[in-house]
Amino acid sequence: MRQVCQLYESAAELEAHQIHLVSTDEMTGIQALERLHPDQAMQPGQPRRLEFEYERHGTLSLIANWHVALGKVIAPSIGPTRKEFDFANHIAKTVETAPDDGWVFLLDQLNTHRSASLVRWVAVCCGIDSDLGVKGQSGILQSMETHTAFLSDPSHRIRFVYIPKHTS
């Protein structure tokens, strides 16, 4: 937890060195609802009446980044799923906003935040030309622990800091 607090405290200094500190999380299962009829306007002596019937259009997942130094949301993603591929694409889209800068992402320990897709993307983006191994068998791609160690490496221009379990 000390590392997380120190990062928040140093956000402005990091930003001065073109390193963006971003807190990232998801909200899943957001219902996409459409009211069937318009609300009725307020009349003298009566409040506005809100329509209660609606049509469901499925659910959406929001992945958002809070840029700590700037105090604003940057590069949010909204889509129908929250899978490994969706999260890796979200991170890529975020980094594209300042592709040559450093990035530190604060996030929880969800499996999609430590996926093989994310490891591969970080390796390419950071110019790490080493054998990553085989998913589930060897090398960096062997396990969640090896993924996490690689993604957390402070020598990488793009790195991830995972908050302790049960603290989000």
What does this structure look like?
Helix 3 packs parallel to helix 4. The chain has a domain at 2-24 and 81-162. The chain is elongated. Helix content is 26%, strand content 30%. It has five helices and five strands, in the order ααβββαβααβ. The model has no long low-confidence stretch (mean pLDDT 93). It is an alpha/beta fold. The chain has a five-stranded mixed β-sheet with strand order 3-2-1-4-5.
Give a brief description.
This protein is α/β, with parallel strands linked by helices.
Biggest sheet overview:
5 strands, mixed
What letter string, H or E per element, gives the SSE order? HHEEEHEHHE
Radius of gyration: 20 Å
Which percent range describes the beta-strand content? 25-35%
First-last Cα distance: 11 Å
Q: Determine the fraction of residues in helical runs and give it as a percent range.
A: 25-40%
How many alpha or pi helices?
Answer: 5
Unreliable residue runs: none
Protein name: Transposase, putative
InterPro entries: Tc1-like_DDE_dom
Domain Tc1-like transposase DDE: 21-167
Organism: Acaryochloris marina (strain MBIC 11017)
Question: How do the strands and helices of this protein lay out in sequence?
Answer:
Elements: H1 2-9, H2 11-16, E1 19-35, E2 54-67, E3 72-79, H3 84-95, E4 102-107, H4 116-125, H5 144-151, E5 158-162
Helix pairs in contact: 3-4
Which short descriptors sum up this protein?
alpha/beta; 168 residues; Transposase, putative; Tc1-like_DDE_dom
